[in-house]
Amino acid sequence: MRLQELRRRSRSRLVESGTARPEYSADLILSAALGIPRAALLWNDGEVTDDELVRAESALRRRASGVPLSYVLHEAEFYGYKFKVGRGVLIPRPETELLVEEALRLFPKGTPARFADWCTGSGCIAIALLLENPSLIAVGVDKSRSALKWAAINRKLHGLEKRLDLLRNAEPSLAPIGDESLDFIIANPPYIPSGELAGLMSEVRDYEPHEALDGGEEGTELFAKFFKAFPRMLKPGGLFLAETAGNAQVCSLDIMASREFVLVNKVLDYNGIFRHVIWRKR
């Protein structure tokens, strides 16, 4: 089969399956399966080998069945960098890049600091910060063995073994992190109320790890633990930067945090929702 015929069939197949952005998905899948730049799909009409056809067919079948594109490709982009991802780890979101931007505004290139990335998942937040500011060092924390496996893969991919430690921890108050040893903590924790999980997009609900999404009854279960545990770890005046469910939850969290933290800033996401919050240790 020639490439242009395969491309036409692949796009049609994903359109018929109701896949989101079918043409885009088909082209990325073919680019990966054939090992050619996406732009080459516009003009290349060479013969597709049997092995290439098998790889393309397998990936297209998974995508047509609803598997997220990033899981099909085992790759996601975040803050301009490539990250390996797969089942068992949350796919990086574009809006989380805004949290990275805020951290870099506070700790720009050349500013030394030690920080923790809690609920590190794929490691995308910590790694993006370390790559953007070579003066930072970090520890990535997660309770999931699967997530930490992907974080370790990405740490090696970006050559950060000496600057990023990884720690498995399910209870922040018991984390073996020294007293007043961190300049800031950044986190994208599970913050969706349990009752809202059923209403998520099927690609998220049916494939991404619920432990990275489910924040308990109010979506604030882990935040309550953070506000108790983090003051010990942060230096005087240290910062806590977090992604949240939005406006109403931000108000609730600020009340929860008021004893140990003072609100510094609230950051809007691309939809005009207060998505990210920065607190300073009192």
**Biggest β-sheet: count, sense, barrel?**
7 strands, mixed
User: What percentage of residues falls in helices of 4 or more residues?
Assistant: 25-40%
At CATH level 3, the topology of the largest domain is: Rossmann fold
Compute the separation of the termini in Å.
66 Å
Structure description:
There is one protein chain. The chain has 282 residues and is α/β, with parallel strands linked by helices. It has two domains: 64 residues, Helicase, Ruva Protein, domain 3, CATH 1.10.8; 204 residues, 3-Layer(aba) Sandwich (Rossmann fold), CATH 3.40.50. The protein is 38% helix and 20% strand. The chain contains ten helices and nine strands. The strands form two sheets. The protein has a seven-stranded mixed β-sheet, with helices on both faces. Strand 8 and strand 9 form a beta hairpin. Helix 1 crosses helix 2 and helix 5 packs parallel to helix 6. The radius of gyration is 21 Å and the shape is elongated. The relative contact order is 0.11.
Brief overview, please?
The chain is an alpha/beta fold. The protein has helices at 3-16, 22-34, 50-64, 69-73, 97-106, 124-132, 145-157, 202-205, 221-233, 247-257; strands at 76-78, 81-83, 113-118, 136-142, 164-168, 182-187, 234-243, 261-268, 274-281.
Write the layout of secondary structure elements.
Elements (H helix, E strand, L loop, with lengths): L2 H14 L5 H13 L15 H15 L4 H5 L2 E3 L2 E3 L13 H10 L6 E6 L5 H9 L3 E7 L2 H13 L6 E5 L13 E6 L14 H4 L15 H13 E10 L3 H11 L3 E8 L5 E8 L1
Parallel strand pairs: 3-4, 3-6, 4-5, 6-7
Antiparallel strand pairs: 1-2, 7-9, 8-9
